[in-house]
From TrEMBL:
Localization per Swiss-Prot or TrEMBL: Cell membrane
Binding of heme c 1, residues: C59, C62, H63
InterPro entries linked to this entry: bc1_cytC-su (IPR009152), Cyt_c-like_dom (IPR009056), Cyt_c-like_dom_sf (IPR036909), Cytochrome_c_Oxidase_Subunit (IPR050597)
Gene Ontology terms: cellular component: plasma membrane
Subunit (UniProt): The cytochrome bc1 complex is composed of a cytochrome b (QcrB), the Rieske iron-sulfur protein (QcrA) and a diheme cytochrome c (QcrC) subunit.
Annotated protein name in UniProt: Cytochrome bc1 complex cytochrome c subunit
EC number(s) reported in the record: 7.1.1.8
Domain Cytochrome c: 46-125, 144-222
Taxonomic path: Bacteria, Bacillati, Actinomycetota, Actinomycetes, Propionibacteriales
Species: Micropruina glycogenica
Catalytic activity: a quinol + 2 Fe(III)-[cytochrome c](out) = a quinone + 2 Fe(II)-[cytochrome c](out) + 2 H(+)(out)
Any GO molecular function: oxidoreductase activity
Membrane topology label: Multi-pass membrane protein
Residues reported to bind heme c 2: C157, C160, H161
Record has rRNA processing as a keyword: no
Length: 266
């Protein structure tokens, strides 16, 4: 404190320092932001036009004629091709009826239609593009990287998706879906676009190599047949309780048996 209030310092020093700090933050943000919001691959203009036509038929009732948003649905400016691809290919969009959550359902669009819709949404503003395989593939990772993926998953995802990615309930009738059998591309897109209750995990926070580690970890986990009775991966509480009841119970039985045998032998 003495340092800040010292008379020797010029009166303008503190405001100047503040302005300097703000400028520095701005510069830092400018340097980092473009990396996180990869400028969208807008595709060719014909694809955008096709996407726009399709959008105005099926999506505009909620998202507006130009994706600007209405009281029924959010603006799609800047959500990126990745968000559109994720939402439409998982059947979440077009949303059938307003509910607690737009659920995963059968998607009725062809790949070309999805690509056109994504190109149109991408043309609205820069946002995460549809990833290429080297951004999300979990193949060929070392055991160390897989272990890191497990750690990242437990730290960032398991609170909602459960320890084994089996999914779980959230407040207000919402839920985090099971991640069993979900592709790496979808995991990348969900992390970068944060659908509904899920937070966005930007490439600044978790770079692509971390996404790949998580994908690899989930693939290995779900490829393994679980041994013994599955408790739905409910985590340490349920498993600990079972260990307690069966384990301690068993030890008690053995103790009783030994005592009875010992009594007979005497
Ligand atoms: C019945 C209304 C409705 C229709 C029709 C609909 N949407 Fe949506 N859409 C919503 C709502 C509501 C949300 C926000 C969901 C949430 O975050 O809880 C949303 C979210 C989205 C998002 C995610 C935005 C983000 O911030 O990541 C995308 C992308 C999207 N919609 C695309 C589409 C496309 C493409 C179509 C047409 C194929 C479509 N939607 C049709 C209501 C609708
Ligand atoms: C705060 C809770 C929360 C956290 C933390 C969270 N998610 Fe989610 N996640 C959700 C919810 C809710 C949905 C469903 C959104 C929807 O239906 O649109 C979801 C959906 C997903 C999906 C889409 C699955 C599908 O049905 O296609 C994937 C993949 C996913 N999350 C992966 C992750 C990963 C990986 C992490 C950690 C890096 C993570 N999530 C962290 C809540 C969370």
């Amino acid at each position: 404190m003495r340092f800040l209030t010292a008379k020797r310092r010029h009166r303008a020093a503190r405001p100047a320092l503040l302005v300097l700090a703000l400028l520095l933050m701005g510069a830092l943000y400018a340097a980092v932001a473009p990396a996180a919001r990869v400028s969208a691959d807008t595709g060719n203009s014909q694809q955008v036009a096709e996407g726009k036509a399709l959008f105005q038929v099926t999506c505009s009732s909620c998202h507006g004629m130009n994706g600007e948003g209405t009281s029924q649905g959010p603006s799609l400016v800047g959500v990126g091709a990745a968000a559109a691809n994720f939402q439409v290919s998982t059947g979440r969009m077009p949303m059938a009826n307003p509910g607690a959550q737009a659920p995963r359902k059968q998607n009725t669009y062809t790949d070309e239609e999805i690509a056109a819709l994504a190109a149109f949404v991408a043309s609205l503003g820069p946002g995460p593009a549809i990833p290429t395989e080297d951004q999300y593939s979990g193949e060929g990772l070392s055991p160390d990287e897989l272990a890191k993926g497990g750690e990242l998953f437990r730290t960032n995802c398991s609170a909602c998706h459960n320890f084994e990615g089996a999914g779980g309930a959230l407040p207000n009738g919402k839920y985090a879906p099971s991640l069993v059998g979900v592709s790496g591309q979808r995991i990348w897109e969900a992390m970068r676009t944060g659908p509904q209750q899920m937070p966005v995990f930007s490439s600044g926070a978790l770079p692509d190599e971390d996404v790949r580690a998580i994908v690899g970890y989930l693939d290995t986990l779900h490829a393994q047949p679980s041994s013994g009775i599955a408790f739905g991966g409910l985590g340490p509480v349920a498993e600990g309780l079972f260990a307690w009841i069966i384990g301690i119970g068993g030890i008690c039985l053995i103790a009783v048996w030994i005592a009875a045998k010992g009594a007979r032998a005497r």
